[in-house]
Amino acid sequence: MSDQHTIQPDDNSPEGRQRVVLLLHEMLQMHVDDVDCVTCGDKMDCLAELVAAGSNPKHALPAIYNHLKCCRSCTEEFEALVAVLLAEQAGKLDELK
Ligand SMILES: [Zn+2]
Question: Is residue 58 part of a domain?
């Protein structure tokens, strides 16, 4: 009788622990907010231009996007930037007419 191949959630084998560590890594990568307001501000111009050009911020710069989701002051700044860029674009389009 052998149940060696069954991995229990509280498995203490090296394989089981490695699996837990990997899971924790994934969770940390999803939740750790290593983008602070300064970093966000640095990348914001770039992201605003991408968004103004029609890109999805979630795919373009996910780390910044995640910060924007949980930081109100950056979101307000970002939205203002996008609005300016869109207005500029509209102005350019008007000039082209
Ligand atoms: Zn912020």
Answer: yes
Which tens digit of pLDDT belongs to each residue from 36-85? 899 899 999 999 999 999 999 888 888 889 899 989 999 999 999 999 99
| Torsion sign over Cα 39, 63, 57, 46 | positive
The CA 48 to ligand 1 mean position distance, Å, reads 15
Give pLDDT, residue 4.
60
- Answer whether residue 25 is part of any domain: no
* CA 49 to ligand 1 center in whole angstroms: 18
Q: How far is the CA of 41 from the centre of ligand 1 (A)?
A: 8
Distance 50 CA to ligand 1 centre (A): 19
Q: Give how many domains the chain has, as a whole number.
A: 1
The Cα 8–Cα 16 span in angstroms is: 8
Domain that holds residue 84: 35-96
Residue 89 domain-assigned? yes
Residue 22: both structure tokens together:
């990997």
